[in-house]
């Protein structure tokens, strides 16, 4: 029966499918061969000689914490190139059916050390991608919880990564800088005195990760991301969320209330660039990295500039500016990010500028809102 089904597929289609598979496989192969295989490192006298670990594997088994958020959902899809069952998603939320069907998904509270330990052992994990966090605006509304999730949670994963010799990625943010940092541009190394619990917890994560690297040889890696813009998930309560919401409101109502001033410039990045940066960074041989935490960026814009770009698609978009308490957070953050070290050390390059990201957002969202409004019209009729 199986044979007859295969036989009934037209030969041309079969060839096209095969060609696509070959293309995809060679892309994966390029990515994989670019990664170091089983390198063992010693650290110039800072670490004890017995502190060794495997830097990477051809097909790492990856645990993503906080994987149902804006970044985790997309990254799990990208990493499925390592094998469907090699990406273990985890969070404290009930996952949509689609996620549950796409590969392993497990409940894991970042504060539950034993549960995480069990998961790492049972699934033979090689890398942790640590996304669980409360973001800037949410964190300010619940400081005790933000301290627990962002700081205690980090301690758990760092310690586990050390014990089990895992490679670990912990994202940082433009929010790790503060009003005393140079803001235009902000280099990798400068004064960091953030004024949000989110920012403080991220500086803590950067320093703790680097400490574990120097002290224990842990392969800790971190990228400081700007505001990340995506269409397929809703943002998790950060100060840059307006740059996602404007697309939804433009399509839904043609009106947008912006909680930042029109001239507030912040660095931003489209999700595809963000996810690609993580994969490329994680696959970079350790010896090419001169730092453990890098700025990465793509573009900077103000609410007025993104509104103008959106008006190319929704010409009558009406925007009102009503700054709220997130304005003071934004005013303390970088306006432009200097990511020249990432570009030099591991070849970071962004692909998407403001017009590209508008096109991508409208390509994704327009059919969805059209469909909804058609359904509503049908219901009214
Ligand atoms: N999205 C951005 O613009 C941006 C920018 C810079 C850095 N980052 C960083 O990237 C990471 C992911 O960001 P995101 O936008 O996907 O965040 P998000 O808020 O969308 O997702 C975070 C996830 O963490 C989970 N979580 C909360 N408490 C938890 C707990 N106790 N145990 C386990 N999971 C828990 C949440 O359920 C949520 O799914 C965060 O560390 C964030 O600081 C994000």
From TrEMBL:
Domain NAD-dependent epimerase/dehydratase as annotated: residue spans: 62-296
EC annotation from Swiss-Prot or TrEMBL: 1.1.1.103
Superkingdom as given in the UniProt entry: Eukaryota
Catalytic activity: L-threonine + NAD(+) = (2S)-2-amino-3-oxobutanoate + NADH + H(+)
GO BP terms in the entry: L-threonine catabolic process
Major enzyme class: oxidoreductase
Pathway(s) the chain acts in: Amino-acid degradation; L-threonine degradation via oxydo-reductase pathway; glycine from L-threonine: step 1/2
Family annotation (Pfam families): Epimerase
GO MF annotation: an example: L-threonine 3-dehydrogenase activity
InterPro entries: Epimerase_deHydtase, NAD(P)-bd_dom_sf, NAD(P)_epim/dehydratase
Spans through the membrane: none
Annotated family: Belongs to the NAD(P)-dependent epimerase/dehydratase family.
Primary role: Catalyzes the NAD(+)-dependent oxidation of L-threonine to 2-amino-3-ketobutyrate, mediating L-threonine catabolism.
Protein name according to UniProt: L-threonine 3-dehydrogenase, mitochondrial
Species: Pinctada imbricata
């Amino acid at each position: 029966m199986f044979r007859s089904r295969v036989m009934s597929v037209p030969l041309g289609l079969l060839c096209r499918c095969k060609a696509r598979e070959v293309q995809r496989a060679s892309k994966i192969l390029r990515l994989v061969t670019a990664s170091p295989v089983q390198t063992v490192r010693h650290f110039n006298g800072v670490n004890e000689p017995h502190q060794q670990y495997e830097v990477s594997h051809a097909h790492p088994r990856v645990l993503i914490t906080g994987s149902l958020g804006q970044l985790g959902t997309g990254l799990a899809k990208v990493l499925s190139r390592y094998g469907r069952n090699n990406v273990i998603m985890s969070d404290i939320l009930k996952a949509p059916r689609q996620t549950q069907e796409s590969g392993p998904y497990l409940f894991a509270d970042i504060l539950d050390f034993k549960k995480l330990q069990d998961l790492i052992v049972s699934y033979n994990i090689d890398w942790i991608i640590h996304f669980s966090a409360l973001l800037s605006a949410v964190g300010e509304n619940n400081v005790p919880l933000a301290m627990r999730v962002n700081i205690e949670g980090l301690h758990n994963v760092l310690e586990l990564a050390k014990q089990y010799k895992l490679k670990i990625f912990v994202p940082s943010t433009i929010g790790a800088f503060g009003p005393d940092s140079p803001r235009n541009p902000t280099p990798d190394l400068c004064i960091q005195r953030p004024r949000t619990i989110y920012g403080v917890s991220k500086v803590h994560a950067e320093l703790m990760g680097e400490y574990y690297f120097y002290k224990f040889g842990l392969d800790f890696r971190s990228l400081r991301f700007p505001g990340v813009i995506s269409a397929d998930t809703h943002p998790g309560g950060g100060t840059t969320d307006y740059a996602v919401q404007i697309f939804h409101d433009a399509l839904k109502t043609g009106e947008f209330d912006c909680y930042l001033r029109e001239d507030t410039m912040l660095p931003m990045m489209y999700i595809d660039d963000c996810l690609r940066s993580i994969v490329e960074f994680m696959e970079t041989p350790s010896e090419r990295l001169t730092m453990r935490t890098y700025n990465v960026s793509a573009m900077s814009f103000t609410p007025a500039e993104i509104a103008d770009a959106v008006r190319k698609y929704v010409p009558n978009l009406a925007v009102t500016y009503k700054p709220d308490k997130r304005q003071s957070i934004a005013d303390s953050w970088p306006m432009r990010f200097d990511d020249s070290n990432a570009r030099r050390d591991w070849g970071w390059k962004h692909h998407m500028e403001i017009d590209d990201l508008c096109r991508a957002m409208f390509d994704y969202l327009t059919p969805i809102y059209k469909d909804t409004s058609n359904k509503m019209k049908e219901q009214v009729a």
